[in-house]
Write a structure and sequence with these properties.
- The complex is a heterodimer of chains A (about 600) and B (about 325).
- Chain A has about 600 residues and is an alpha+beta fold.
- Helix content of chain A is about 55%, strand content about 20%.
- In chain A, the strands form five sheets. A five-stranded antiparallel sheet of chain A has the order 4-3-7-6-5.
- Chain B is of the alpha/beta class.
- Chain B has two domains: about 60-165 and about 275-325, D-Maltodextrin-Binding Protein, domain 2 (3-Layer(aba) Sandwich); about 170-275, Periplasmic binding protein-like II (D-Maltodextrin-Binding Protein, domain 2, 3-Layer(aba) Sandwich).
- Helix content of chain B is about 45%, strand content about 20%.
- Classes of the chains: A alpha+beta (about 600), B alpha/beta (about 325).
- The interface between A and B is medium-sized, with 20 and 20 residues.
Chain lengths: ~600, ~325
């Protein structure tokens, strides 16, 4: 509970400290943002006002140029409507000749032209540098200039559609002219063309660019975009090093910022404004240096400055906040350390108490341990003694059992000897054979006990040694009749208890005896194979085969009358096994049974 | 110029055309060679003439209406036919075509051919008489471009009611020592005064027109007479350019020249009696003539004719204030 109160207090204190920092920081940032917004807004307004002023100036300029053009149009239209020009074409329509009537009609026109050129001046400069009346055939009827234009350029002046007196650039934009298509009685008769003084347009109307602070030029829409006409050919106003064709023109009423070199070739920011010239397709394009118009501190600089101030304040707030946070963390860690130290001291005291208890318990344990050791030693001594007694007893039992086996073997050998002796006394061959078989069977049993006697383990015998000795005995006992027969055995390391070893020995005895007697008639040589091993299914497989004449065809092992084979069948059942006699060439008996003892394999 | 495909209704016209040539030839020859012509030929010609006149009187206006177009023969001259599609006579004939309810067509011709194009007979003057030159195709229905009514012309064509005053004036350059006479109110005296000024000065006229000096006996006054080879319209410019000291100009030309070069020429005074200018019609189109005169009278009455005159000859009222009042 006390700890929870501490945590709450600490939390309140932490929040209290940081909230103040937060509040100050947010207030500072909001204040800076407000300043920023207001500054930006006022700067934008200032800039908009300046742009509006420039636009107004440009519009006024365009209006001046438009008025100038309108005056020129009026001049041309007045010329076209003049009686002097009409008289010429009237006279020509009447069929007057150039020798008389027509030539007389031209001087008044020329006088009118020269009068107009003399009269029309702008800032002391003549507005027109040349005026001509061109016949629709291309002949210059009246021309204030002595030199006639290049004949190749003459057709450009003849255009029956120029009835509005619109100012145009001709001769590859080298000439600024006011052409007027003259119609006499509804038919195109020729062209009135007035060449304007480009210096007026450039120096007087568009303004000088000597200061390099602004550039004003004239454009005309073209198929590929706005085509800049002046000041390329208005050399006096052209700003050297300035390439206006590289600038995309903004639309009417729009502005565009771009970078271009000034008079000194230094790159500057320029603001471009376009205004339409009234009553024509011309545009006034004015480019002013941004620096000269808005000063160095443009809105973006203000914006950047204020933004950087805001960032600095924000960084300060964050830094203070971070310091405060670290301080709080350190304080919290210190308190935590103190708390842990107190806990450790408490635990240390508790551990000392436990240690004392444990020391006393260890002393008691040591006494008990000594007692236990003594008891253990006594027990071990008693176990050793009892083990020795048991080993002696076991040895005695083994000796006794070995003696039993030995005596059984001796008895069975005696029986076998008796049967042998009896057979020697018997005249009947069948009886002799029966006796001999019986003797072999008894002997095979005796050999089993003998093997148990010499075996280390009185409960099992090694099957391979037993089969080896049994087969040797059988070959030897058959005498000359088995001289050409060879017995081969391949027996795995299998140990069988006497309960299973006995039937196995009798089965082997019966089958080998049977093979020696019947498989190799008339002294044939052959081979008898005994193979014992562990099958894939875990059972012990025993195969006795020969390469003799084989069993009679259609022999049924279950119904055969032979004692030996009946015995084999019975012993197999005793083993709990399975007998199989394949019908192959030669003879083969396959017996499979399970080992009674898992240690047999 | 084939104007239409003849039908049974056109028989009188065909007959007229068939009879036209012998009649004209005979009539022309008759004027000069009446002696020695067999009586029966004269009788036949007279009968044919009568027949033709009757047929023509019925067919001329109808034929034009049927054709649906009024063909106006004109020579660019002064402000009657300007050569550029307008002029007083052009406008008048356009209104006449409109009055008839048919289309207007202007056919340009020249002075030597104008009457032949109208009548099919090219003639030339011989005193107050005419001399047949050749048969030519008929190209127009009416000729109007300020044609002065002269006796020889009246033998080739028939003229409408007077449309414009004319007179032959003596004209000099502004800087000429010859000064205008002071009108006395007696035309004969004025003409005599003018003629007296011609002496010792070169004079220019134009042959075959009303400006031919011989028409007014001027060759007896001065031997420095030249006949201008160019267009009538070029005579005033030629004077201004110094080709001659004095020239004869008819009223329309002089008025036009005054409009254009008022400061360069001056009118000295008349050398002829007043004349009339009128539209010319073929003699075999009396109905068309009557219809035109009716139309002209109506235009004069409603003031539209005077308006037209003012438009093209504003100065004429200064010199002939009574002509249009009288004609209206």
């Amino acid at each position: 509970m006390a700890r929870n109160i501490d945590v709450r207090k600490r939390t309140i204190r932490w929040y209290g400290g940081n909230l103040a920092v937060f509040a100050v920081g947010i207030a500072a940032v909001v204040y800076v943002c407000a300043l920023l917004a207001m500054n930006y807004r006022s700067d934008r307004q200032l800039r908009d006002t300046a742009i509006q002023k420039l636009r107004t100036e440009t519009d006024k300029l365009a209006e001046s140029v438009g008025y100038f053009f309108e005056e020129r149009k009026d001049d041309l239209i007045n010329l076209g409507m003049s009686r002097e020009v009409a008289v010429f074409f009237e006279n020509r329509a009447l069929g007057m000749s150039m020798k008389y009537g027509l030539s007389l009609s031209l001087p008044p026109i020329a006088e009118r032209f020269s009068g107009l050129m003399e009269r029309k001046k702008f800032a002391g400069e003549p507005v027109y540098i040349r005026i001509a009346l061109i016949d629709k055939s291309g002949e210059f009827l009246v021309d204030s200039a002595a030199e006639r234009p290049d004949p190749q350029l003459r057709p450009q002046y003849l255009d029956s559609s120029m009835r509005d007196g619109q100012i145009r650039f001709m001769s590859g934009d080298r000439e600024l002219v006011a052409p007027f298509s003259y119609y006499f009685k509804g038919s195109y008769a020729g062209q009135l063309v007035a060449w304007l003084n480009p210096g007026i347009l450039g120096a007087q109307l568009l303004g000088s660019t000597e200061k390099g602070k602004d550039v004003t030029w004239l454009t005309v829409p073209d198929a590929g975009g706005p085509k800049i006409i002046a000041p390329q050919h208005l050399a006096a106003t052209f700003h050297k090093g300035f390439d206006p064709s590289a600038i995309g023109m903004p639309g009417l009423g729009a502005t565009k910022l771009f970078t271009a070199p000034d008079a000194q070739g230094k790159n500057r920011d320029w603001l471009c404004i376009v205004a339409a010239v009234r009553g024509s397709n011309f545009r006034i394009v004015r480019a002013v240096q941004v620096e000269s118009t808005f000063g160095l501190f443009m809105s973006q600089w203000h914006l950047a400055g204020m933004a950087s101030l805001a960032v600095v304040i924000l960084c300060g707030v964050v830094f203070t906040f971070t310091l405060n946070l670290k301080s709080q963390l350190l304080q919290a860690r210190l308190e935590e350390s103190l708390r842990r130290e107190t806990e450790i001291q408490d635990k240390e005291r508790a551990l000392c108490e436990v240690n004392r208890e444990l020391t006393s318990e260890i002393a008691i344990g040591e006494v008990l341990s000594t007692e236990l050791k003594n008891s253990h030693m006594q027990l071990e001594q008693r176990v050793d003694e009892r083990t020795a007694e048991l080993q002696n007893s076991l040895q005695e039992k083994n000796v006794l059992l070995r003696e039993v086996h030995h005596r059984v073997k001796n008895n069975l050998q005696v029986i076998s000897s008796l049967l042998n002796l009896q057979s020697l006394q018997t005249k009947d061959d069948e009886a002799i054979a029966v006796l001999k078989k019986t003797k072999d069977r008894v002997y095979s049993m005796a050999m089993l006990h003998e093997a148990l006697c010499i075996s280390d383990n009185l409960a099992r015998i090694k099957l391979s040694d037993y089969i080896e000795r049994l087969s040797s005995h059988l070959i030897n006992s058959m005498g000359s009749s088995a001289s050409n027969i060879e017995i081969k055995s391949r027996v795995s390391e299998i140990h069988l208890q006497i309960e299973q070893a006995m039937p196995c020995g009798l089965i082997i005895n019966e089958l080998i005896t049977n093979a020696i007697k019947h498989a190799f008639p008339e002294g044939r040589s052959g081979r008898i194979m005994i193979a014992v091993g562990v099958q894939a299914d875990g059972r012990i497989g025993m195969t006795i085969s020969d390469d003799g004449v084989g069993l009679p065809p259609n022999l049924n092992i279950q119904t055969v009358s032979s004692l030996g084979l009946k015995l084999v069948s019975m012993l197999t059942k005793q083993l709990g096994g399975e007998l199989v006699v394949p019908q192959n060439s030669g003879t083969e008996f396959q017996i499979a049974f399970c080992a009674a003892d898992q240690h047999a394999l | 110029m084939q104007r239409f495909v003849p039908t049974s209704n056109d028989l009188p016209y065909m007959l007229k055309k068939a009879m036209h040539k012998p009649h004209e030839e005979n009539s022309m020859k008759g004027l000069k060679k009446s002696a020695g012509i067999p009586a029966f030929r004269i009788a036949v010609a007279a009968a044919a003439m009568l027949l033709f006149m009757q047929v023509a009187a019925r067919a001329d206006l109808d034929e034009v209406k049927k054709a649906g177009v009024l063909r106006h023969l004109g020579v660019p001259y002064a402000n009657f036919v300007t050569g550029s599609g307008d002029g007083m006579d052009v406008e008048l004939m356009q209104r006449f075509a409109q009055y008839l309810g048919i289309r207007y067509e202007y056919i340009r011709t020249d002075w030597p051919d104008i009457f032949g194009d109208l009548t099919g007979k090219k003639v030339r003057p011989k005193g107050d008489d005419i001399e047949f030159v050749a048969d030519v195709p008929v190209k127009g229905d009416v000729a109007a471009n300020g044609i002065t009514v002269l006796p020889w012309r009246a033998k080739a064509v028939q003229f409408s009611a007077p449309m414009f005053p004319n007179q032959v004036w003596l004209v000099a350059r502004s800087d000429s020592p010859v000064n205008p006479i002071k009108p006395t109110g007696d035309l004969k005296k004025d003409i005599a005064a003018v003629k007296s000024l011609i002496r010792e000065h070169s004079l220019m006229g134009k042959a075959g027109t009303c400006l031919e000096p011989s028409l007014y006996g001027l060759q007896e006054i001065t031997d420095k007479i030249t006949l201008f080879p160019g267009s009538l319209n070029d005579i005033a410019p030629a004077l201004i350019k110094g080709e001659t000291e004095l020239t004869l100009l008819d009223v329309p030309d002089a008025l036009v020249a005054l409009q254009k070069w008022s400061s360069k020429i001056k009118i000295i005074g008349p050398v002829s009696q007043p004349q009339d200018m009128a539209a010319a019609f073929p003699k075999d189109a009396p109905k068309l003539l009557v219809e035109f005169n009716r139309f002209l009278e109506q235009a004069k009455k409603d003031g539209s004719f005077v308006t037209m005159v003012k438009k093209y000859y504003p100065y004429v009222f200064k010199y002939y204030p009574d002509f249009f009042e009288r004609s209206s």
